[in-house]
Fold these 4 entries.
Entry 1:
Amino acid sequence: MEPKTVTRHLLEDHREIKRLLGEMENALEPTDLKRIGDIVDRLEPLVELHRRKEEEIFLPALARCMFDHPKPLAAVTHDHGVEETYLEEVKSFLTVMEDVSFLKPLVDACRSLVQFFRDHLWKEESFIFPCAERSLSDEVKWELLVRMEDLEKESAHAGTAQKET
Ligand SMILES: [Fe+2]
Ligand SMILES: [Fe+2]
């Protein structure tokens, strides 16, 4: 097995996000509302945690060595806001799912969400992650990986604690 690295850790999240996007696509025709709802319930916390890893841990470290080129990093953060809007839009259609007139807008919103997420993941994998691999020292990469794993444990713990209450 290849050793864990910070970008590989993020890529594993991407793989799981892409898997759920594929599932969402499969649930659109014929439209399976229950399945779409279940996928959104799994996608949302995963994306939220992944976004925190990138915005709280990964991007600030990258910004320190890329201060001459802040635009790509700002674009990543901007995309995260748009992703959130897409998720909220799909969720709002799901709350009125007994009204069939919302079926087409829901399917369209899901398709836009899938497309946007895929583009975003592609941008990070093609430009941001390779740049991190080149720019960050081994020491920093290791520190970021440990912090991301800690954040993951913390959030799993918070999730369990929430379920118990
Ligand atoms: Fe991202
Ligand atoms: Fe990402």
Note: DSSP finds five helices and no strands in the chain.
Entry 2:
Amino acid sequence: MSEVIDRSLLRLFRKMERAEEDQRIRERKRTPRRARPRCGARTRQGTPCEALAVWDFENDRPRNGRCRMHGGLSTGPRTEEGKRRSQEGARLGGRVSAERRGHDGVGIM
Ligand SMILES: [Zn+2]
């Protein structure tokens, strides 16, 4: 009997926690979708891209002003170390991980 009550109390408690979280999200000030900037990249038709720029919800601003198709998601490594790692990966083409799996790398590419 008390077990049933315990469980329903727990469920109620979780429900209240969720409601509080929803309230916090709703109260947070953020730029409405219609007020967010467009991508503006030049399309193949020569017109500016009208897609919304990728939005950084944490900071309530666009990531870099471009949409997901025009570099908004990632524009590649920026630091020298990152660029070096990227080039290394392209040069080795999977041979390093093959070695770790016990393959000699021959016949991979
Ligand atoms: Zn775009």
Note: The mean pLDDT is 87.
Entry 3:
Amino acid sequence: MKHPISDLSTAYRYLYPRLTVLVSSGTLQNPNALTIAWSCPLSVDPPLIGVLITKKRYSHEIIQRHNEFVINIPDSSQVKESYHIGRISGRVEPQKLKNAGFSVETSTMIKAPRIKECHINLECKLKDIIPTGDHDLFIGEVVFIAINHEITDNWAFDLKKFKPIYWRQSRSTEETYHLDLK
Ligand SMILES: Cc1cc2nc3c(=O)[nH]c(=O)nc-3n(C[C@H](O)[C@H](O)[C@H](O)COP(=O)(O)O)c2cc1C
């Protein structure tokens, strides 16, 4: 038996678990990042990827200022670090990347820094921002892809060597947890 759910704002929950990425922005000297579960490929050619960011995030302001960001893909050994990035704003903790245990490195094509400890980095130039409701869709054109050669299968990443993070949102953010999909 199926039953209706009256609160339609819960619809997004049925699209979990979701691949989780870290979006870094700012500069090498003043980097910031946030954790993103809402990301989506938008086009193969040109290579466009969208990330959905609410207005109150510090990253929303920084990416608009610099027009660049990097999509860094953490692995399952970095759940705790990724949770830290997604729980505290760079506005209140300017050193949050460092405090989470991450460091930054220079990107190849843009000024926004990459997260060094993530094995995959997609450097993006901001193409557009489209309001969608309570989130804004930041459309990035990928201008450079960096991947650790040890985890690639020469198509993308080898799932035997690289386990991405999938989050299942639950009632309280504190309970948000990572599903081990082995
Ligand atoms: C697993 C996880 C997924 C998240 N996904 C998103 C998202 O897709 N969009 C968003 O705006 N915030 C998302 N957040 C919340 C931000 O990462 C969080 O508010 C962060 O501290 C914002 O940092 P900032 O203010 O320095 O930009 C997520 C948090 C977690 C823990």
Note: The pocket of flavin mononucleotide is lined by residues 20, 32, 34-38, 52-54, 57-59, 83, 86-91, 167, 176 (CB under 6 Å).
Entry 4:
Amino acid sequence: MNDKTSHVLILGQGLAGTCLGLRLAMAGKKFSILSSSSHDAASVKAAGLMNPVTGRRMALTWKYDIIWPMALDFYPAALDFLKTENKDIFTIRTIRKALHSTEEMNFLEAKSAWAGYKDIIRIERKNKKEEDIFENLSGWAICNSGARLQVPEFLEAARKYFSEQGNLMDEEFLPENLSKNPNEGGWTWNGQAFDAVISCLGLGCPWISPELWAVKGQLFALEGLPLNGPDILKTEHFLIRLQDGRVLAGSTYEREFENNEPDQKGFELITGEIIPELRRSLKISESWSGIRPTTHDRRPIIRRLEEGLFAINGMGSKGVSIAPFAAAEIMKLLFPGE
Ligand SMILES: Cc1cc2nc3c(=O)[nH]c(=O)nc-3n(C[C@H](O)[C@H](O)[C@H](O)COP(=O)(O)OP(=O)(O)OC[C@H]3O[C@@H](n4cnc5c(N)ncnc54)[C@H](O)[C@@H]3O)c2cc1C
């Protein structure tokens, strides 16, 4: 598939399908996207955080050296390409992780001197005058290379572009309507021929669903939390100040759940480390939840399934940072040598 006439079909317009569609559009390739808005997309529920160091021990995220610069380049370039006026859709953010013990502080202080971590984290001991939001705060691990993408706004801007360019079909994908072209290669969808098909259907992907693990996440928009400034605060969960003054708090990571609704248990888990006086005065102004497509080894699936059929999936809680890389990898498979 090297020539400009090759026609690619993307299934699904969540983060994976959108980043791939934008890479194809920016490279001047011919493509269509089939996506039905009647399906729940994990992407529209995402908080949009890009955090390079995760977990208690602040381990560097998978393929950091490749995926981080790629995502930091891709989103501003894509937003320029889409001519979006809202400059807040993608912003670089400092992430401050609350530290609660001397042991944690000493470990991370030592780690902040390790090769590969030196430019990413630094430790700040708690200033006595600092107002407390969290219980037993002894200091902060500060990371300057975080970022946030307002995912619904990004998807909407891309959707508008795809729609205006005639790339988008708002239709249900049914596997029985996709057939292989026996002679000339490629695939046919409802009578239309395509040279390659890329499934970005999230949990709705019929080919790899047995490999996926559904993990629920809950988010709350809160009033009454005195969080000033653009820094994102992190404990087990995160707090992000929104432009309207509310604070976005999230997300749970639930492997077992009965429904896709936010609940009191999720709220308590997320706000559990906030000091009790503050927690009592919090008001939930909005809440929502979604289901992430995740894999057992927490690595994304970026794969050729068979000749001319590919998939991006299983991005778990890191869809924002992984999707630009996944799209670039699929581009290499589609157009080798370019
Ligand atoms: C509460 C919550 C918070 C999160 N926060 C973050 C965060 O802060 N940072 C981060 O990086 N990630 C976060 N994530 C994870 C992120 O949302 C996912 O990794 C990512 O959205 C997965 O994108 P996707 O394109 O693979 O799947 P999806 O977004 O699910 O997209 C699938 C697409 O396929 C379409 N579709 C499915 N089936 C069909 C069909 N049969 N016919 C037609 N169309 C179909 C859907 O409509 C959708 O457009 C969060 C997730 C949740 C739930």
Note: The mean pLDDT is 94.
